[in-house]
Amino acid sequence: MNEEKETATSSPLGRWEELFREQSEIFHSAVTRAEALEAEVKELRRENAVWKNAHKKSEDDHEVTKRIVLRLERNMDAIKDNNPLLVCLIDGDGTIFAPDLLAAGRTGGRQAASLLNKGLVDYIADLDDTLPPRCQVWLSIYCNKKGLVDTLVNNNVCSYEQFEEFYHGFNQASPMFSIIDVGYGKEAADAKIKENLRVFTKFPQTYRIFLGGSHDNGYSTTINHLANEGYLDKLILLKGYKMLAQELKSFDLPQVQIEGLFMTTKMAGAGHNRNLSSSPTKQLRDGPLKRFFPDSQQRLPVGQSQSTPQLLLSQNQLGLRQFDPAIPLKNYKPPPCTWYYLTKCKNNSRCRFAHDFQATPKMIEQLKIAAKRSPCAAVAKNKHCPQGDACFLGHVCPRGPSCSFLKSKKCKFTGKDSHKLPFGAAANAAYLGAMRIVDDTGSDDVLSSVGSPGPSDSQLSSD
Q1: Is there a contact between 446 and 373 (Cβ–Cβ < 8 Å)?
Q2: Which residues belong to CATH 3.40.50 in the chain?
Q3: Which residues, including other chains, have CB under 8 Å from residue 284's CB and lie 6 or more apart?
Q4: Cα–Cα distance between 150 and 273 in angstroms, integer?
Q5: How is residue 93 annotated by DSSP?
Q6: How is domain 80-256 classified at the CATH fold level?
Q7: Distances (CA, A) of 439 to 89, 281, 284
Q8: Which of the listed residues 10, 85, 246, 290 has the most CB atoms within 10 Å of its CB?
């Protein structure tokens, strides 16, 4: 069999057939490969055409975008050059106009607006002499009008009538100048100023923004936000008080202070602490007990009586509630807020206690006594109180060394020296007595529940 096959392939005809078969396979393989390559080339050509079209469209779009950008840039430059805007936002509760301007009424208001406008424009002119002369100043002053005017009157700066005249004179001085009453609550003014800062810094026509809030650390968060977004170069601090808030110093912002426009030192009761106080007895106000009842900035101005009928009438006209010393504080519905009148209430409009009382020396003194019944958290933990003698909370247990809760270790005054009274016998007795005396009738009511977290006698234990 093998011999026959070898004979067949060894013959010329067999050899030719074998070669023809191999050649046919080679040709078939070559044709198949050529067809596959041709199909691949066709697909690549199609894809190439697609990419060419896409590239051309991209180039066309890019050219269109470039033209749009150039047009927008020209428009922005035109806006900047045509009517550049100087925005001025002022916290009116802490940046207060000079007394002579306020006392001048309507004329003072117009003069203040003129001084403010001239001071800002002159500062910018010195900063950039290429700024067009048609620069506009848009200015808003946000304040608690009722609280501000009360403070001004109580400090003998101006009368209610003079402030009203000043208010109208300032607002009428320019259509772009406004004093805006935001009502009670620190955050009411702060929130508006902060939001305006965020919005106006992004406007291309806003050349610079003046912030009249250099006294308040609360603006540091917003300023830091502007720094992160790259808008800090637009911000300038408009100073009232000579002292700059500590947290604002790190931003190293440019500052401007217009001579004779604002008060340069803080007025008693200015800002968000608009309260008056005066000790009802010399024994509690002076001597060794003074550090337990610090007057801070709440003392009545020299020469002002504790209850002037004209002042009470004016404050009644403004809607303030009157305090009657014969009525225990806790009997008012709602009672006055201890935190609001002695320091700062964080609850603002959400507070369940009253913020609308006329702050009289008697009421303030009773609130101070009530607050002393609540332990200072720092002292209770044997730590240093950062407020020191100015702290309105208690550093010493109102029951003194004879505290019945001390022996059972249930007293909330847990500081190591909280039951030591470093006075003489008479002074110690006066201090302990003050913890219970809430009015001149000798009432033994406890004030701890009046608008503050202070504990009552039964609450002085940790149970």
Answers
A1: yes
A2: 80-256
A3: 293, 365, 430, 434
A4: 11
A5: T
A6: Rossmann fold (3.40.50)
A7: 44, 12, 14
A8: 85
Cα 87 to chain centroid distance, Å, stands at: 18
Residues 368-390 pLDDT 10s = 888 888 888 888 888 888 877 77
User: Residue 97: its pLDDT value, please?
Assistant: 95
Which bin fits 139, alpha (ψ -120 to 50), beta or left (φ > 0)?
A: beta
Contacts of 276 (CB under 8 A, 6+ apart): 154, 269, 298, 299, 300, 359, 360, 361, 364
Beta-carbon contacts of residue 87 (< 8 Å; ≥ 6 apart): 138, 139, 196, 200, 206, 208, 209, 210
Residue 142 or residue 392, greater confidence = 142
CA distance 42 to 35: 11
Exposed / middle / buried, residue 366 (Cβ in 10 Å: 0-12, 13-18, 19+): buried
d(CA 413, CA 461): 8
Residue (of 107, 105, 186) closest to 147 by Cα position = 186
Most confident of 98-107, 214-223, 280-289: 98-107
Q: How many C-beta neighbours within 10 Å does residue 382 have?
A: 11
What tokens does 255 get?
Answer: 């500052």
276 pLDDT band, cuts 50/70/90, is: very low
Euclidean distance between CA atoms 331 and 357, whole angstroms: 14
Segment (H or E) for 85: strand 85-91
Which of 460, 265, 275, 288 has its CA nearest to residue 366? 275
Residues 155-203: tens digit of each pLDDT: 889 999 999 999 999 999 999 999 999 987 667 888 899 999 999 999 8
In order of 82, 116, 123, 145, 270, the CA distances from 131 in angstroms are 10, 18, 11, 35, 37
- Choose from 9-13, 220-224, 326-330 the range with maximum mean pLDDT: 220-224
Closest CA to 147 of 301, 3, 276, 324: 276
Question: Does the reported pTM lie above 0.90?
Answer: no
CB 210 within 8 A of CB 87: yes
Question: Dihedrals φ, ψ of 178, to 5°?
Answer: -145, 140
Q: Which one, of 304, 413, 408, 414, lies nearest residue 360 by Cα?
A: 304
Q: Which amino acid is at 204?
A: P
Hey, is 136 helix, strand or coil?
strand
Better pLDDT: 290 or 77: 77
The pLDDT of residue 234 is above 80: yes
